[in-house]
């Protein structure tokens, strides 16, 4: 029984369906062996942890994760870090790989089809609302607020929207809305984006977050499945259909973003390129970063390895283990090395006389003596050889490594192996 004058939390009657099957090809070699949602972020977490943590912190205790592309590391991470749900408490987290459940030749054809193929599983949850989430963005958001708006407005779908400058909106799916926030149009990467009523400088971009009544979505999915001309995608097919023939409402991210007082602006990042991934991680080393990962009231849950504390050794004039304006994770050893404005994930080792500046080093990578790297992303388990210099001559670096237009260098072990073979 609910206390008097306290509305029931709608999250108790909702489930989160997380779409985590995409490769994220713009991350290049970082997704050669893992899906984009499984890519590391922030020193300890994976990208998918943000969507899952938002759901958990919002009060949602029923979740499903649809996987497809190279899902092993993602599935293993979720099994290790998210296995605390208990069915006897009416809590569930199901991992739903594309498993040819409706046809021996059919994988997930699109984002909507990923839900369609699992209708029976969603039915078994006995929920009233489904929150469809992209599993590949960095943000903190209270979905309960979005659920409440959805119910209060009687919408068929409520779409999470970012406020972005009109000039930047050409890279997004953009919502045209009226003064009541009802969506009147949905345009994919328009040359001339519609702006927010009363705000001619800004537009509304889709976040890939949707709230539906399950009964309504179920019928819509079954209808879409019979349409041979459909690509079976939420953004391309279902949302435009509802905009045209139903009631689609926009939810402003500003209304439900979670801030701590240190965060001065709503924070949302698509870390879908090497540049964006590097920048978002390096931004965490700022004195007051735009994203507060230390907020205990809205923690980002993850699988945390049992490792010893970080260690710094040697204290000679030219051989001192130190880190300045950097995040150093457990299990790291900074041995007579200088680390500045960098982020080292679990188990990284930097050997004597090496120096790292604005380096994002994924777990268990190692830096040999006298190595000097700047503006780099180093993949998991990479062994940087002694004396390697990267980040000072982009043209020379591009012969062996991937260098972006802004000068960020991505280094993988296969790149180093090719370099070593060519130089011997």
From TrEMBL:
EC number, as in UniProt: 2.7.7.27
Q: Which InterPro entries match?
A: ADP-Glc_PPase, ADP_Glu_pyroP_CS, GlgC_bac, GlmU/GlgC-like_hexapep, NTP_transferase_dom, Nucleotide-diphossugar_trans, Trimer_LpxA-like_sf
Q: Name one GO molecular function term.
A: glucose-1-phosphate adenylyltransferase activity
Q: Where is the Glucose-1-phosphate adenylyltransferase/Bifunctional protein GlmU-like C-terminal hexapeptide domain?
A: 308-411
Pfam families under this entry? Hexapep_GlmU (PF24894), NTP_transferase (PF00483)
* Keyword Nucleotidyltransferase attributed: yes
User: So what does this thing catalyse?
Assistant: alpha-D-glucose 1-phosphate + ATP + H(+) = ADP-alpha-D-glucose + diphosphate
Q: What class of enzyme is it?
A: transferase
**Domain called Nucleotidyl transferase: residue spans:** 16-285
Q: Where is this site: Could play a key role in the communication between the regulatory and the substrate sites?
A: 68, 107
ATP-binding among the record's keywords?
Answer: yes
Specify the domain of life of the species encoding this protein. Answer: Bacteria
GO terms under biological process: glycogen biosynthetic process
Kindly state which keywords UniProt assigns to this record, in alphabetical order: ATP-binding, Carbohydrate metabolism, Glycogen biosynthesis, Glycogen metabolism, Nucleotide-binding, Nucleotidyltransferase, Transferase
Q: Which residues bind alpha-D-glucose 1-phosphate?
A: 108, 173, 188-189, 206
| Associated pathway | Glycan biosynthesis; glycogen biosynthesis
What family does this chain come from, according to its entry? Belongs to the bacterial/plant glucose-1-phosphate adenylyltransferase family.
Q: What does this protein do?
A: Involved in the biosynthesis of ADP-glucose, a building block required for the elongation reactions to produce glycogen. Catalyzes the reaction between ATP and alpha-D-glucose 1-phosphate (G1P) to produce pyrophosphate and ADP-Glc.
The protein's matches in HAMAP family, at most eight in alphabetical order, are given as: GlgC
**Quaternary structure?**
Homotetramer.
Q: What is this protein called?
A: Glucose-1-phosphate adenylyltransferase
Organism annotation: Aquimixticola soesokkakensis
């Amino acid at each position: 029984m609910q206390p008097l004058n306290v509305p029931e939390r709608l999250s108790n009657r909702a489930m989160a369906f997380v779409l985590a099957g995409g490769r994220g090809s713009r991350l290049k070699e970082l997704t050669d062996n893992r899906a984009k949602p499984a890519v590391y972020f922030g020193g300890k977490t994976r990208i998918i942890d943000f969507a899952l943590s938002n759901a958990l912190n919002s009060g949602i205790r029923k979740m499903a994760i649809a996987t497809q592309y190279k899902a092993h590391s993602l599935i293993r991470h979720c099994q290790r870090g998210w296995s605390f749900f208990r069915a006897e408490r009416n809590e569930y987290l199901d991992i739903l790989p594309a498993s040819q459940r409706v046809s021996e030749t059919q994988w997930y054809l699109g984002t909507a089809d990923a839900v369609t193929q699992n209708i029976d599983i969603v039915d078994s949850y006995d929920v009233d609302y489904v929150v469809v989430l992209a599993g590949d963005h960095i943000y903190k958001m209270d979905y309960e607020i979005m659920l409440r708006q959805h119910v209060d407005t009687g919408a068929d779908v409520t779409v999470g929207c970012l406020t972005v400058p009109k000039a930047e909106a050409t890279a997004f799916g953009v919502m045209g809305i009226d003064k009541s926030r009802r969506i009147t149009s949905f345009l994919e990467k328009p040359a001339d984006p519609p702006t927010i009523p009363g705000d001619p400088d800004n537009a509304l971009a889709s976040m890939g977050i949707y709230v539906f009544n399950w009964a309504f979505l179920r019928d819509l999915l079954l209808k879409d499945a019979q349409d041979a001309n459909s690509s079976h995608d939420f953004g391309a097919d279902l949302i435009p259909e509802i905009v045209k023939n139903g009631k689609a409402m926009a939810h402003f991210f500003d209304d439900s973003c979670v801030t701590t007082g240190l965060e001065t602006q709503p924070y949302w990042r698509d870390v879908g390129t090497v540049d964006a991934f590097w920048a978002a991680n390096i931004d965490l080393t700022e004195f007051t970063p735009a994203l507060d990962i230390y907020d205990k009231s809205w923690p980002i849950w993850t699988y945390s390895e049992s490792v010893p504390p970080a260690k710094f050794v040697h204290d000679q004039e030219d051989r001192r283990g130190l880190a300045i304006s950097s995040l150093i994770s457990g299990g790291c050893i900074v041995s007579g090395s200088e680390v500045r404005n960098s982020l080292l994930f679990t188990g990284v080792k930097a050997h004597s006389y090496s120096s790292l500046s604005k380096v994002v080093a994924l777990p268990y990578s190692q830096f040999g003596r006298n190595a000097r790297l700047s503006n780099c992303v180093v993949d998991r388990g990479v062994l940087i050889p002694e004396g390697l210099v990267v980040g000072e001559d982009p043209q020379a670096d591009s012969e062996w490594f991937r260098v972006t237009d802004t000068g960020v260098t991505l280094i993988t072990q296969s790149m180093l192996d090719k370099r070593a073979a060519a130089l011997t």
